[in-house]
Automatic annotation (TrEMBL), chain A:
Gene3D superfamilies: Fumarate reductase/succinate dehydrogenase, transmembrane subunit
Coiled coil location: none
Organism from which the protein derives: Cryobacterium luteum
Transmembrane segments: none
Top-rank taxon: Bacteria
Keywords tagged on the record: Heme, Iron, Membrane, Metal-binding, Transmembrane, Transmembrane helix
One CC-aspect GO term: membrane
Compartment list: Membrane
Subcellular location, principal: membrane
InterPro entries, per database record: SQR/QFR_C/D, SuccDH_FuR_B_TM-su
CDD domains cross-referenced by the UniProt entry: SQR_TypeA_SdhD_like
An example Gene Ontology molecular-function term: metal ion binding
Listed name of the protein: Succinate dehydrogenase
Automatic annotation (TrEMBL), chain B:
Cofactor (UniProt): [4Fe-4S] cluster; [2Fe-2S] cluster; [3Fe-4S] cluster
Highest taxon of source: Bacteria
GO biological process, alphabetically ordered: respiratory electron transport chain; tricarboxylic acid cycle
UniProt-recorded name of the protein: Fumarate reductase iron-sulfur subunit
Metabolic or biological pathway: Carbohydrate metabolism; tricarboxylic acid cycle
């Protein structure tokens, strides 16, 4: 009687060499570059929101509305959103490539990651560019206090 | 004859104390067992003994069925890489005095390669990756006026670190990406590609870089540094992989 221990590594085979753009290489470069940019963006974001001026107690609806009205912060936030979500999504993709063994589960997980990244990017970008703190024609009792000063 | 007297004082050699060490070894016999299991052995050892000596004592005095690979027993052949207390080490280079002998010492086969028996794994997947990077000198041109391909000291020093590899698989089988990903080349193959990519006499660097630019090539490396920690030859494995990445990005070695 002999028993064989299952091979520990996933059995799927190295895919045939594809020509053209090397996504794996550019994905790696993207992770490095976006990581460095994100350090600046995220810590700048935290510093401005939590430490500058009155600090964390200044955070309220009006503060966020004020920031989203400025083109500078719009660009900052959208950059942060795109870079962070693609960075995170690509990281999740490499984890799936490492640990999902069957072709089907890898496909499902990667599509799920792609869908969530794309929908979050679209929604977030829409919010940043179309945000209106005081939409015209809304009942006054639903609007924040700052709108009555306009 | 023994003239162990200096200035009429007999030299009494200090007696070196031996001690009992418990080794817990992961055993697997494919003809009997369905699953690997841990078995413990008590061995009398000196601080200067190595884990390999402990394994020999077990095999010669207690259980002859214990199976492991070793050839030179001096850290050059690369046969006896194994996981000692959770770290990949050569059994012939791990001294008892460097381990905590008050606790049992756990010894098991290296991970990520198919287990065949006790401490022996199937090394074929490891050598397949090694072969895939063309680990040999490719030089089609004629050497300039003479019979030798000369190299300056600096040119030789460029890849000196990666020439030390003994192909023991300690690095590759310590890599968490290699444990799960069936096709990743693994650190050892990249180290051996590095040795020729940065060799000034070699002319096939572009081909090797192209091979390692694969989806399962150097980009899988997550810079965990397990390989650098595991290497019994002290090769800066992670740095070598990073240099290959740089070479691929720049398009030339």
């Amino acid at each position: 009687m002999t028993s064989t221990i299952e091979a520990p590594r996933s059995p799927y085979t190295r895919s045939a060499k594809k020509r053209g753009l090397n996504w794996e290489k550019w994905g790696w470069i993207y992770m490095r570059v976006s990581g460095v940019v994100l350090i600046v963006l995220i810590f700048g974001h935290l510093f401005v929101n939590l430490m500058v001026g009155e600090g964390v107690s200044a955070l309220n609806f009006a503060f966020v509305a004020g920031k989203l009205a400025s083109p500078f912060w719009q660009t900052w936030d959208v950059l942060m959103l795109w870079l962070a979500l693609i960075h995170g999504g690509n990281g999740m993709r490499t984890l799936v490539n490492d640990y999902a063994t069957s072709r089907i589960s890898r496909g499902i997980l990667k599509v799920a990651i792609l869908l969530s990244v794309v929908s979050l990017i679209v929604l977030g970008t829409l919010v940043v560019y179309t945000f209106d703190a005081c939409p015209a024609g809304s009942p006054a009792d639903l609007l924040p206090a700052l709108c009555s000063n306009l | 004859m023994s003239t162990a007297t200096i200035a009429n004082q007999p030299v009494v050699p200090e007696e070196i104390q031996s001690f009992t060490v418990t080794l817990i070894i992961r055993r697997f016999n494919p003809e009997v067992d369905d699953e690997p299991h841990w078995q413990d052995f008590d061995v009398q050892l000196y601080p200067t003994d190595r884990v390999l000596d402990a394994l020999h004592k077990i095999k010669w005095e207690q259980d002859g069925s214990l199976t492991f690979r070793r050839s030179c027993a001096h850290g050059i052949c690369g046969s006896d890489a194994m996981r000692i207390n959770g770290r990949n080490r050569l059994a012939c280079k791990t001294l008892m005095k460097d381990l905590d002998v008050t606790k049992p010492i756990y010894v098991e086969a290296i991970k990520g390669l198919p287990l065949e028996k006790d401490l022996i794994v199937d090394m074929e997947p490891f050598f397949d990756s090694f072969k895939a990077v063309q680990p040999f000198l490719v030089a089609k041109s004629k050497p300039v006026d003479g019979k030798e391909r000369q190299q300056t000291v600096a040119q030789r020093a460029r890849f000196d670190d990666t020439t030390k590899c003994i192909l023991c698989a300690a690095c590759t089988s310590s890599c968490p990406v290699f444990w799960t990903d069936g096709q990743y080349f693994g650190p050892a193959a990249i180290v051996n590609a590095h040795r020729f990519i940065f060799d000034s006499r070699d002319e096939n660097a572009a081909v090797r870089l192209d091979i390692l630019n694969d989806q399962e090539g150097v980009w899988r490396c997550r810079t965990t540094f397990n390989c650098t920690d595991a290497c019994p030859r002290g090769i800066q494995v992670t740095q070598a992989i990073a240099e290959v990445k740089q070479a691929i990005m720049r398009g030339k070695a």
